[in-house]
Amino acid sequence: MRLPTGAELWPIAIFTVIFILLVDLMHRRQRWTARYPPGPMPWPVLGNLLHMDFQNMPAGFQKLRGRYGDLFSLQLASESVVVLNGLTALREALVKHSEDTADRPPLHFNDQLGFGPRSQGVVLARYGPAWRQQRRFSVSTMRHFGLGKKSLEQWVTEEARCLCAAFADHTGHPFSPNTLLDKAVCNVIASLLYACRFEYDDPRFIRLLGLLKETLKEEAGFLPMFLNVFPMLLRIPGLVGKVFPGKRAFVTMLDELLAEHKTTWDPTQPPRDLTDAFLAEVEKAKGNPESSFNDENLRTVVGDLFSAGMVTTSTTLSWALMLMILHPDVQRRVQQEIDEVIGQVQCPEMADQARMPYTNAVIHEVQRFADILPLGVPHKTSRDIELQGFLIPKGTTLITNLSSALKDGTVWEKPLCFHPEHFLDAQGHFVKHEAFMPFSAGRRSCLGEPLARMELFLFFTCLLQRFSISVPDGQPQPSDHGVFRALTTPCPYQLCALPR
Ligand code: HEM
């Protein structure tokens, strides 16, 4: 067959451009419907991709909020997005319309990385029976192990002791605490999932942590978002493996750990951990094609709990230590409270928390100020809804700007400063705030919140009971600005931990 050449190509090119523009018009037609939230004018095909500041999305959204208000819309190629800002809009969407906003937008590249209709895990699962089944299972299993003989609290306390020992090994030398914090928090998840902890110098553990971090890095930023809004690019052979090598290797490692775990599993004995409990459900579900209990989903659920539970908690702890360096007066008051309530001999327990309002306020203020997941995890509408007088059609992606509640100037006295008094009344009692929503709210709110709270309290109080944290002599003070990506991490810093 002869290929078209020269002048014959023009009609084909014009037809293709018109076709693309028509498809593009179809995607953005809802912008013209009355009561759709305003937003910057999208470009053909790319939409507002060029309006996004991928290095610091929260700051970019703050500017757009100033221009368009609490609800504004964006078009990311073919995807319609509405960004929710401020406590009122966030609560209306996540709590009042909890069910209608509980879906997640698909991440197309995951389909080639072990994610399927019956193996969606929890974090990115579409709102439906499979998500409900796995969310219920994860929550009830965590509760079960929180109450069992070897309770999660004991695991965390033991791990805090190991973390303190590792800090003590660095006495007199400045060091970055981040890797040790990652290891301690990762071991808590490992104890929940595999009833075991890894030694900090175990090469397999170091590899697991490295792959977990690589996976999170691979999923953040421009390229994955670009591939997701232009999913036809994922058909290029070998592309997914090239863009997500860490995620591929992480999935393989989870399979290895699962195969190993199965060799010691005894179904006649009570479950040792979440993996055992899941395997028992897989047995029960044999022959039921509707069930989400299968080996592929076990891998996805385990991967979800590792990735959702590890970096979030360790990053918050890293912020906590850095803020203690920057606010030595706050550190001294926490230590004074520890000495009065727990003393220097006993290990901290969760029961102590109720008698430690200042420490509790400091931990809450660390979470508010650090604002580690400023944009939460995207949601999607499963029905047309009305929000703040605007109409949001079914199938719209919602970005929850949690940062806008955590730093809301109408709620917090000093929104941009570290100020533990935000959580204390005039008598020094701990006070809660509706705008404190680092774990989000509604049906998809963080299911690991009780575990995260336990870890933050026990690790933080154990460390400050044993050590005074300061900046090494001659080194500049760390900066409290943080590095914004999907996750806000503190700027790299080193500390000195002196035994008290
Ligand atoms: C300081 C620590 C943590 C913070 C700030 C945090 C925050 C969040 C946020 C903002 C979401 C998204 C909620 C939404 O979509 O509206 C989320 C979801 C989730 N988190 Fe956490 N999280 C933390 C620790 C943990 C831990 C320790 C675990 C479990 C071991 C965990 C497991 C999950 C899961 C499974 C989801 C998905 C829930 C669903 O889609 O139904 N998180 N988390």
UniProtKB/TrEMBL annotation:
Subcellular location: Endoplasmic reticulum membrane; Microsome membrane
GO CC field: endoplasmic reticulum membrane
Catalytic activity: an organic molecule + reduced [NADPH--hemoprotein reductase] + O2 = an alcohol + oxidized [NADPH--hemoprotein reductase] + H2O + H(+)
A molecular function GO annotation: oxidoreductase activity, acting on paired donors, with incorporation or reduction of molecular oxygen, reduced flavin or flavoprotein as one donor, and incorporation of one atom of oxygen
Enzyme superclass (EC): oxidoreductase
Residues reported in the UniProt entry to bind heme: 446
Protein purpose: Cytochromes P450 are a group of heme-thiolate monooxygenases. In liver microsomes, this enzyme is involved in an NADPH-dependent electron transport pathway. It oxidizes a variety of structurally unrelated compounds, including steroids, fatty acids, and xenobiotics.
Parts of the chain that traverse the membrane: 6-26
Principal localisation: endoplasmic reticulum
Cofactor requirement: heme
Matches recorded under InterPro entries: Cyt_P450, Cyt_P450_CS, Cyt_P450_E_grp-I, Cyt_P450_E_grp-I_CYP2D-like, Cyt_P450_sf, Cytochrome_P450_fam2
Gene3D superfamilies reported in the protein's UniProt record: Cytochrome P450 (1.10.630.10)
Membrane-protein topology: Peripheral membrane protein
Official protein name in the record: Cytochrome P450
Annotated EC: 1.14.14.-
Keyword field contains Glycoprotein: no
GO biological process: arachidonate metabolic process; xenobiotic metabolic process
Keyword Heme: yes
Membership in a protein family: Belongs to the cytochrome P450 family.
UniProt keyword terms in alphabetical order: Endoplasmic reticulum, Heme, Iron, Membrane, Metal-binding, Microsome, Monooxygenase, Oxidoreductase, Transmembrane, Transmembrane helix
